[in-house]
Write a structure and sequence with these properties.
Elements: H1 3-36, H2 55-59, H3 72-79, H4 83-93
Length: 94
């Protein structure tokens, strides 16, 4: 195969990929418009962030039970067991 034929084949493949990418992009835009309305530019277009709170407030919440002192020995043991056993435990509780 000559270099010109190879370059033409690669160019044709790239053109097909570009066309496919624009087709998928148009379908995604239609899907977002269907779900979130015609004025939304993304799935976050209509989301309101006003009730979000700062990271320091998130950390201070009582939901952070992972870093409590009573869990430290369990975390230590879990981190020092062999990986296959650790992955099996993780799979079991996932």
């Amino acid at each position: 195969m000559s270099m010109d034929a190879e370059a033409a084949r690669i160019g044709q493949a790239l053109d097909l990929l570009i066309a496919r990418d624009s087709e998928i992009g148009e379908r995604a835009k239609l899907r977002v418009a269907k779900i979130y309305g015609p004025t939304a530019t993304s799935s976050l277009g209509t989301y309101d962030f006003s009730d979000s709170f700062a990271k320091r407030d998130q950390v201070s919440r009582r939901g952070d039970w992972v870093h409590r002192n009573w869990l430290r020995p369990i975390r230590f043991l879990y981190r020092h067991i062999p990986k296959p056993i650790r992955f099996a435990i993780k799979k079991l509780f996932a």
